[in-house]
C-alpha cells in the first residue's frame, strides 16, 4: 500500500446504512468480520507512450464498499477503471477480483468483464438497439440465455431503474439521463460483483444527473460494491465509504469522506476540494 | 445531327478495326450517312421496337452480370474493409496494396487481363463443381445446374467483381471507422469478445451507414458492365451495337433506348435501396 488507509469507525457507518443485504452488518463493532478484499490492486503501472498515467497504484476495496475516486483531470482515474475492467492492458502490477488474479495470463478477460459492470461517461448505449435489446444482447450472446428469459430479465432491470415504459425506445429517442439509466441497467443485468462508474453524470445536465444519482443511491442501499469516478461531491458525501484522491497517477490520500472533506492530510487534497466547491457554487 | 454522326462514325470505326480487341463485327455493313437519313425516324423506332426482345435479352445478361459482380465484390470487399480497420501485419498490408492496384487500373485493362491472361477455365471449373455439389446436396430442385459458364461472363464477373471489391472495401472501411470506439468498449464491458462486439454491435451499425456508398457503387458497376462489350459478352451494349450494324440509321434510337434501360435499372434499384435504408434506419437517429 503506497497510500495511507484509514480503517476507523467511519467506514462502518456506511455498512450500517446499507442495511441487511450485507454479510457484515451483523456486528458493526466487530473488527474481525471483514473478509478478504473483493478487489485488490497492487502497484499498478500504466503508460501511454512516454507518458506514465498510473505510477504504482495500490488499492483494496471490500465487498459492499463504495469507493469514490477523485482527482484533477489527467490524474489517471479513468485509466484506473479501464485497467480494472481489462479494457486497457496494464504494464505491470497485479489486480485481483476475489481469489482470481485478473491480470494473470491464463485469466479470460471476457469472464472478468462479466463480473465487473462498467458505466461510461459517454454512456455508449448500442445505438441500433432498443433499450430492452441493449440489455438482452449480452444476456443472449454472452450468457446464452433464451430469448424469453433474457427479455424478462431486461424488463426487470429496466423497471429497477424506472424505465419500464421505455423498453422499446431507441437510444436516440431517450434523454441523457434515461440513456445513462439504461446503461446502468445493462451492466447490472450481467450480475456483476463490482460496478465501475466512469464520471456517469459529467455529460448530463444537473437536472438529468439527479435521476442517475438516485439510481446509484439505490444501488448503494442494496449493498452493491462500487468504484465511482465523479465530481458529484453530494454523492461522495452521502454514499461513499471511502474517498481516494489521485493526482499525477498516484494515490495522494485515502480515507472516509468526513475526514477527507473536513480535514485532509495533504495540502494538494485540500486545494482540490477547495477548487471543486467553487466550481459548484 | 452532329451527335448522331459522331456516334455513328465512332461505332463504325470500332467495328472496322480488323486487328483490335474491339473488332467484333464479322461483316462490315454499308455505311449510311445518319445525317442524310435524318435522326429519330419512325422507321428506325420501328426497327428498335421489332428488336426490343433482343435488347431485353442483353438486359437480362447485364443484370445478371451486375448481380454476380456485386456479390463477388461484397464477399471480398466487406472482409477486406474489416481487415483494413481491424487487421494487422502482412494480411492488412497485402489487402491495402491489392486495393490500391485495383483502384488504380482502368476497368478495361482488368477485364482484358482476366479474359486473356488468367487461366479462366480454373475458376469456371471450380464454380461448376461447387454448383454441382450444392445441387447434389439439395437433391431434386426445379433449377438446372449449368454444366459450363461462358468464359466471357466469367472473365467479366472477375474483373468487375474484384474492382468492385476494392471500392466496396473503402465504403465499409469508412463506415466501420465512423462507429464510435465506445460502442466496442461497451460491448466488451459486458463480456463480449472483440470479435463478438464487432459482429453484433459495430457491423450492424456500419452496414446501415454504408448504404449511400453502396448505392453509388451499384450504379457504377451496372453501367460498367457495358465494358464487357470489349471481350464480346452479349450484354446490353454489345447487342445494341449488333443492331446498329444491321441498320446504321437507327444508331441514335438504339442508343437512346439502351440508355433508357440503364436509367430505369439504376433508378429502380436506387429507389429500392432508399426504401430499404429508411426501413432499417435507427429510429430517432438523425445521422
Describe the structure.
The complex is a heterodimer of chains A (281) and B (287). By secondary structure, chain A is α/β, with parallel strands linked by helices. Chain A has one domain: 3-Layer(aba) Sandwich (Rossmann fold), CATH 3.40.50. Chain A contains ten helices and ten strands. Chain A has a six-stranded mixed β-sheet with strand order 6-7-8-3-9-10, sandwiched between helices. A four-stranded antiparallel β-sheet of chain A has the order 2-1-4-5, with helices on one face. In chain A, a hairpin with a 2-residue loop joins strand 9 and strand 10. The longest helix of chain A is centred in the last third of the chain and has 16 residues, at 206-221. The two termini of chain A are 35 Å apart. Residues 1-34 of chain A have low confidence and may be disordered. Chain B has 287 residues and is mostly helical. Helices cover 75% and strands 0% of the residues of chain B. Chain B has helices spanning 2-16, 34-37, 42-50, 52-86, 89-103, 107-117, 121-138, 151-178, 181-189, 194-209, 211-224, 236-246, 251-279. In chain B, helix 5 packs across helix 8 (151-178), helix 6 (107-117) crosses helix 8 and helix 12 packs antiparallel against helix 13. The longest helix of chain B is centred in the first third of the chain and has 35 residues, at 52-86. Chain B is globular. In chain B, 34% of the residues are buried. The A-B interface holds A 85, 87, 110-111, 113-114, 117-118, 120, 122-128, 137-138, 141-142, 169-173, 183, 186-187, 190 and B 180, 182-183, 185-193, 196, 200-201, 204-205, 208, 282-286. Chain A: Residues 1-25 have a biased composition (Basic and acidic residues). Chain A: Residues 1-38 are annotated as: Disordered. Chain A: Pfam families: ABC_tran.
